[in-house]
Amino acid sequence: MRTVTAVDVSREMLTQAERNLLRFREHEILYVNQSITDLGGSQPYDLIISNAALHWTYPDIGGAIDHLAGLLRPGGCIAFTTAGRSVASEEFDEKISNAIVAVGGTIDRHPFRQRRISPDEATRFCEAAGLDVIEAFIIERATNVAPAEYVAWASSSGRAWTELPGGEASLAAELLADQEEFRVGHWSTLIVARSVQN
Ligand SMILES: C[S@@+](CC[C@H](N)C(=O)[O-])C[C@H]1O[C@@H](n2cnc3c(N)ncnc32)[C@H](O)[C@@H]1O
């Protein structure tokens, strides 16, 4: 039997996780509704896995990684994905910013692009936290979508704007203005690292 701690700030996500993990009844699974930055533990963890959540700890992603590293036993591992930054992601975010300005919108003070980190930045955070980085890379996925779909998704997931005088439809139209299809990129920085603390 293993003891697993599942943590998320969203109670709904924990409920969904509980449904997904029903088949692992033989293990002890603790569902903890709090921020990973507040996560404690009476015993150090052998392994920490985090998928697509660390960027939400911006502006102190390094602090969050440091906190998680401190919860590992010596030799314990951490594997995480977080929003990735690359030349292509910067170009994509620039295109979105230009479109927001073109339709008279106001850019958010903390648009999603600021939450992105490259594999090099992630490696620096890990090393500063006493982790030995084993793997650091970025995955890019791209797909064609209707601009309105992208704008609706971006709106509900860390939007880049605070105001769009013409509404979201105006931004969708602007994004489609110079091309037949709107290509959306999705970038994830992945890290596998081991604790070298004594
Ligand atoms: C894209 S979802 C990924 C969910 C899940 N990890 C998965 O792989 O399916 C991002 C999740 O991060 C959670 N989140 C945001 N900030 C967090 C924090 N500080 N601590 C823990 N979870 C957080 C959100 O509630 C959301 O469920």
TrEMBL record:
<feature type="domain" description="Methyltransferase type 12">
    <location>
        <begin position="3"/>
        <end position="78"/>
    </location>
</feature>
<dbReference type="Pfam" id="PF08242">
    <property type="entry name" value="Methyltransf_12"/>
</dbReference>
<protein>
    <recommendedName>
        <fullName>Methyltransferase type 12 domain-containing protein</fullName>
    </recommendedName>
</protein>
<dbReference type="InterPro" id="IPR013217">
    <property type="entry name" value="Methyltransf_12"/>
</dbReference>
<dbReference type="InterPro" id="IPR029063">
    <property type="entry name" value="SAM-dependent_MTases_sf"/>
</dbReference>
